[in-house]
Structure formats: C-alpha cells, structure tokens
Amino acid sequence: MKQIGFVCLFLSLVSLVYANNIDIPILIGSDDIFRISPADPNITKTNDKKKEKIPVMWGGNTLTQEERLINGFQMKVFILGGGAYITHKNVKLNAREIEVIGEDALIGNLKGQVVVEDKENGATLIASKGVYDKLLGTVTLENHPVLIHKKDGKTVRISCHSIVRYLEEARTVLSGKVVVTSLDFQVFGEDAVYFEKEDRIDLENEPFLFSENRFLQGKILSYYVKEGSITLDGNAAIYQVSYEKGNENIEESRKNSKEVKNKEPVEKEKIRIISTFSGDRLVHKNKASESFTSMKGNAFLHREDSEFKAEEIESTRNNKLIQAKKNVTYLDKKNAYRMQGGYLEYDKEKGYSFLSENPQIFFLDKKTLEEKGNLSSVFIERFDEKKEAVARGNVNIQTQTAKATGEFATYFEEEDKLVLEGNPTLVRDGTKVSAGRIILFPSEDKAVLTDGLKVLNDDKKN
Predict the structure, then answer these.
(1) Which of 22 and 281 is assigned the larger pLDDT?
(2) Mean of the per-residue pLDDT values for the chain?
C-alpha cells in the first residue's frame, strides 16, 4: 500500500486478460460457424481498433492501491480520492472517491458527490453513488439521481429512483417515480427513456403532465425538448380549467343546484369552466412559426354547456382556428341544437363556422334535448355575434308534422326560429303549399307562411 500526492494515469485499453487471447471452446469442429479463431490477424486488428475507440483516463489528488479477489480473480484496485475522476471518451465522471477495478478501469465504483458531465450533449447527471462499466459503456446512478439537460436555451430537469446512462449513445434509462420538469410544465411517470440525440423523452405506464390550468394523461407520452412538443398515445386526455364570461345557461343550472340555492346572489363575474378533451392520440407541436394541437381517433371535447366530437380535431393559431374531420358533431346545450357533418372549420377571431359534407342541424327540446326537427343542406354557416346559422343549397327541413324545402334558410338560435326562402314549399297532412317565405318554430311544431300563400296540390305521397 502506498500513497501518492497527485496521480494522473493514462492507460491503454489492452488488458492482460484479453492479451492472453483465452479461447473458450463452446463448440468444437470445422463446421462451428459461431467460433472465431483468435489467430486470425484481421479479427485481431478489428478488435484492437474497437478498443482504441474508448480511451480512458483517470486520476485524483490521492491514490491507494491494493489487491482484491473479485469474482474469483485477483485484481488490482485503485482507490482515488480528492477530485477523483474517470473519463470515457468526452464524458467525465467525478466523485469524492472512486474505486477503479483493474488497470484498464473495467469497473469504477463512484462514491459521494457523483457528477457525470457530457458537455457535448448538454447533460449533467448528479447522484450520491454510481457504478461505471467500461465494456458496456454505462454509468448506473442510484439514490434519487438527477439529470439536468441544457441545450439551445432549453433546460429540463429529470429526477427518479435510478438512472442508467449509455455514454456513447447519449441515451438515458430512468426508472421509478420519474419527474420531468421544464419551464412550462411537469411530467410524472414510472419509467422513461431519454434519447438526447433525437431530442425526445419517452414515458410509459400512464404518465401525466401538469401545466398552467391543464392536466394531460395517456398510456405513452413523448416530449420533444427543443420544440417543447408533446405526443400522447393511448386514451389521451386533457383536463383544462378556464374562466369565461357568464354563460346564462350554466348560471341558471348552478343556481338551481342545492349547493348554490341557499347562497346570496352575487354580481356577474367570470365562471370557472372545466373542459375535457380525449381521443386515441394527441399531438402538440410548439413551433415558432405556428403551433398546433391535434387529437386523432374518437376525438371528444366536453364542457358543461357543449360537446364536440369528430375522428380528428385540430387547433391552430393558439386555438383561434379549429378544424374537425369525419363524423363531426357539435352539441350546443344552451341553444338546444346539434350540428353534424363531415367537415367543420371554426375561426374564433371572425366568430365564423363552416360545416360541409352532408351537414345537418337537429333542433332539440331545451329541457330534455330530445329531437324536435332537423335541417339538411349543401353547407351551413354559423355567425357567433348574431347567433345565427345560415343553410344554403337544397335545404330540407323536417319537423314533427311537416316537411319543408327551399334554397336558403336562416336559423335564429335565441328565438328558435327558422326562416325559409328561395321558392319554399311546405307539406303537412298531405297538403303542399308554397309562399314567399315560410317561418318555422321547430320546438313548437308551428309554421307561418307569408308573401303569396298558394296551395299546390293534394299530394298524399309527400
């Protein structure tokens, strides 16, 4: 045993164990395709080249050397202290004390204040103890280690129970109570894999994400660090809390509830709204030019006052433009109607909706939401400010006791009134009539005909 004040050892990779070229005869015979002869000079050169790719340097302020029996072999053990370190290519492993097993540093036991620095990939790992394995090219960290990744102005902090870092691949496997924290949100999961070269963190086993007023959950979550983008696969769901101007329909229902009934009336203020958005797969891209959120497969948005369904719903321009495709259904509980079709586009800034591909409006009872009538046309437009829906082209209206047709119809939501124009006709009890305008009240099953009423025939077939 001897002490050395400061030691810096630079060692070659060819150990005595490997230099002996020990041949273990697993299978014997010329037909053994798995057995490689160490006498082949080409194979030896190739192996030497591979070994040369992993230069290792280690040192510290103090050094203690001893012999130990490890796995049945007598090995040299170097105990480094005071600024002890091991380098694996460009990655530096620091600790208060390091036990180096073998002259080639095949294993390194890191103890106290462990810091792994990978400056090339912008990663720093911190732990209280770890094990370095040269042949596997890994460092395993225990006791609640932390990974801090800084790159391109983004900082992500990941904590968990244990970490296995693959030094040459810049890949990190994180296990047990994984918490990913960035400036914008936190992700919680059981296990994760961080592919730093691909700029992606994958979390499985039902991870969930918290951000301001939002909660996301799915079976698998992938987070792209640089973009700040997210992919959720398998029963993806968003739960969001927002505060909006008073909705009369919601206020009325809440006043009638037992919790609010006995409370004194208060001035109108913003109402707390809880929204849920679910589907098979959620994709959120946070690009500098334009960000978007897309829910694919059984997309369903639920609020207290409305429901929105489609095979795919995509939101762009910071939720100001929404597009829905395939089996689109929008239910407005306040105004008691349901719209459906193959394609819906909504521009929030303009307060304008466009519904096409066999669009329909279903008129509902305000209390029970039972269907009282329906309308179909070539396309339907809706204007938020006026609270009107306009149907154009081959308009067909069905009430409880009548059918009406025309080229143009306007639905006034607050009055529950339909104005049908463009050679409108009405058929009721086998009698067909026409007029300049036909006004229908679907929930009351009432019709008013104006501007030139004319009975066309007694066509019972209609």
Answers:
(1) 281
(2) 81
Q: How far apart are CA 146 and CA 439, in angstroms?
A: 69
Alpha-carbon gap, residue 55 to 60, rounded angstroms: 17
Q: What does the alpha-carbon distance between residue 395 and residue 406 come to, in Å, rounded to a whole number?
A: 5
Residue matched to tokens 């679910």: 278
Which is more confidently placed, 455 or 72?
Answer: 455
pLDDT at 295: 94
Q: What is residue 264's DSSP assignment?
A: P
In angstroms, the Cα distances linking 330 to 61, 269, 319, 352, 367 are: 71, 26, 17, 14, 18
DSSP state for residue 127 in the 8-state scheme:
E
How many C-beta atoms surround the C-beta of residue 456 within 10 A?
A: 13
User: Cα(first)–Cα(last) distance of the chain, in Å?
Assistant: 109
CB burial readout 358-395, b (16+ within 10 A) else e: ebbbbbbeeeeeeebbbbbbebbbbeeeebbbbbbeeb
What gap in Å lies between CA 23 and CA 4, rounded to an integer?
A: 38
Q: How confident is the model at residue 248 (pLDDT cuts 50, 70, 90)?
A: low
Tell me, what's the pLDDT at 455?
85
Say yes or no to pLDDT of 212 above 50. Answer: yes
CB atoms within 10 A of CB 425: 18
Pick from 284, 278, 318, 312: nearest CA to 296: 312
CB atoms closer than 10 angstroms to residue 91 = 22
